[in-house]
């Protein structure tokens, strides 16, 4: 009879302390992870909701990375287009001087040399590389966006017809750049022209004029072309600026949605730290008391109990 009672006492005590220990470990896990749901069996419905929210978080992280990459690409594009605009402004100023009859042929040739130097800068800008080493204005191609005829200097576009597009979320996307032809090719006087070709031809004509009158006429005609080319570059800058604004708008939307998801996750499976810590402290006290009592009772000998 005594053996049975003693055995039952041990079994019940150990079982009780085991349950208390498991509850304590569960509370500790909830505090360390911030989640009340450690296993699907804890709350199957809430666990399913948490998985859906966490999957949405993963997709949102990819969208956020895409937005950052697109913003970097478009910012570089905008900065480079600004350099095109600055150079075009200086070329236009020089061309205005060349169109004046106050310059002699030697002075006009000197202007042509300066424009020729700017042409080299423009060809370098046209082959600008992005952070990954791909052509900034080559669409989705690799290598250089443009190659140039070694004899005439005529440009040939090697890129694709469109720039890359990145997803910013369900139903949302942005084109990450512009191709060379989108801003270097333009219309002037109803004729399709290319900025690089126009500047190269102008520089050559001013350095090697067939006559003073011809050089002046070339400069005057080039002013209209340069104005149209500047408008083309400015139009692309406007497009790029609009895309950057779109990225900022979608990023704000992503931030708001992420905040809503975080709130929902906290409601569904988040841990109330203050309440859980208090409960853990209470549970630890109960466990320690149970262990202490068990040790004391277990140390009582049959002689002590009879005595």
UniProtKB/TrEMBL annotation:
Keywords: Bacterial flagellum, Cell projection, Cilium, Flagellum. GO terms for cellular component: bacterial-type flagellum hook; extracellular region. Residues 4-142 form the Flagellin N-terminal domain. Its main location: other. It is found in: Bacterial flagellum; Secreted. GO terms for biological process: bacterial-type flagellum-dependent cell motility. Pfam families: Flagellin_N. One of its GO terms (molecular function) is structural molecule activity. Belongs to the bacterial flagellin family. This is Flagellar hook-associated protein 3 FlgL. It comes from Novosphingobium sediminicola. The lineage of its organism: Bacteria, Pseudomonadati, Pseudomonadota, Alphaproteobacteria, Sphingomonadales.
